[in-house]
Amino acid sequence: MNINRLVGIVCLLGALMSSIGCDSQPASKYPVDKPLPVFGVSKMVDGLLVQHSIPSFSFVNQDSNQVSEKDFDGKIYIADFFFSTCPDICPMMSAQMVRVYEAFEDNEKVAILSHSLDPEYDTPAVLKDYASKLGVQAPKWNMVTGYSRRFISEFGQSNYLVTAKEDEGAPKGILHSGHFLLVDKDRKIRGLYDGTTEREVNMLIHDIKRLLNEE
Amino acid sequence: MKNKSSISWRTILAFGWPVLLALGIFAYIQTEGKGSAGQRLYALHCTNCHGEQGAGLRGLYPPLAGADYLLEGGAEIACLIRYGYQDSLLVNGKWYSQAMPGNKLLQDQEITALVNYIRNEWGNEAETIPFQEIKSALDSCKPESKN
Mind telling me how many Å the CA of B127 is from chain A's nearest CA? Predict the structure, then answer.
């Protein structure tokens, strides 16, 4: 009888612990026993295998200043793709990105780069207005434009591995994913997170700290 | 005696878990289905911008919780929900100018449920606006037919 009672108690404890486990979330999105992964397809260049990285770029931000990869030298940055009038996922993405902004507001080694997918409407002035209403500023958070729709869709898909394309059925004809991409100081993608959920963005904030420690 | 007692423990272990599981599923379904129509409509159409707690988003999207515009206003809010709003809106002394998209597929009843939900959630307390009042507000703000 004692043994049976013991078994019962152990089972109950087990059930209790597993139910607590259901509610907790892993701190990091990726295995903690090795460095954060590098995303993208490696290429052979002059007989050497080169990992995927973001190529050079030059855009215009909300202050009408040129923004290039040089502005991110020695920095980690988080990239995403949005547009100011996007009615569905962008408000959630902005709300979550504000959390990242606040978490690293005083850390010069962390920056944010949001690409508008609607460059005709999202002029620097429109982006300035959007950023001001959010209470955020460049250079910590650059919101960029100054290219064609087609260019930025292709740039996003081929370099940041995100969905970004024209689609008649989507709001304003722009279909895009709500991913946040974690990019290291060598411009390699080290993490992909769903920017519409608090849970994934908690992991992103944790992984930014991991990456800062790694570098 | 000993035998009897060990059987009862086995019985608990064998039959207890399915019962617990069934209770869990039942509770889950209850929670999922819980909430008024207004609450479900809010989650579906409004949370993206105004947030689960009705707090809005900084200077971009106005709050609904504690919003004078909502609590001191009346049935005309129904027009804003159905047709959206393109101009600036003064809420608690602050101007908001991000365009609000309309929700033209919502029925009069649904808008009534939504209005009364947001007027009485997150600490908000305001009189319930009857369906007839919402309906006449919606009728009065209906854009003129192009035909």
Answer: 30
pLDDT at residue A170, rounded to an integer: 82
Cα separation of B5 and A8, whole Å?
13
Which residue bears the tokens 């139910």?
Answer: A19
Yes or no: say if A71 and A210 are a contact pair by the CB < 8 Å rule: no
* Closest C-alpha to B77, from B114, B50, B47: B114
Asked if B2 is an interface residue toward chain A (Cβ–Cβ < 8 A), one would say yes
Chain B closest-CA separation from residue A4 CA (Å): 6
Contacts of B100 in chain A (CB under 8 A): none
pLDDT of residue B23: 74
Contact predicate A50/A40, CB 8 Å: no
- pLDDT tens across B51-69, in order? 999 999 999 999 999 999 9
CA distance A162 to A165: 10
- Candidates A4, A84, A86: best to mutate against B (most CBs of B within 10 A) is A4
Task: State whether the Cα torsion A86-A88-A91-A96 is positive or negative.
Answer: negative
Angle, vertex CA A156, rays to CA A129 and CA A132, nearest 5: 10
Give A85 to chain B, closest Cα distance, Å: 8
- DSSP E strand boundaries for chain B: 89-91, 94-96
Whole-angstrom distance, CA of residue A160 vs CA of residue B10? 56
Enter the DSSP assignment of A136.
-
d(CA A86, CA A190) in angstroms, rounded, equals 27
Q: Which residue of B60, B85, B96 to mutate against A (max A Cβ within 10 Å)?
A: B60
Instruction: Give the pLDDT score at A174.
Output: 82
Cα separation, A214 vs A206, whole angstroms: 13
Cross-chain CB nearest to A94 (options B9, B57, B101): B57
Put simply, the answer to whether B9 touches A5 (Cβ < 8 Å) is yes
Rounded to 5, what percent of chain A is helix, strand, coil? Answer: 40, 25, 40
The CA-to-CA distance between both ends of chain B, in Å, stands at: 88
CA distance from start to end of chain A: 58
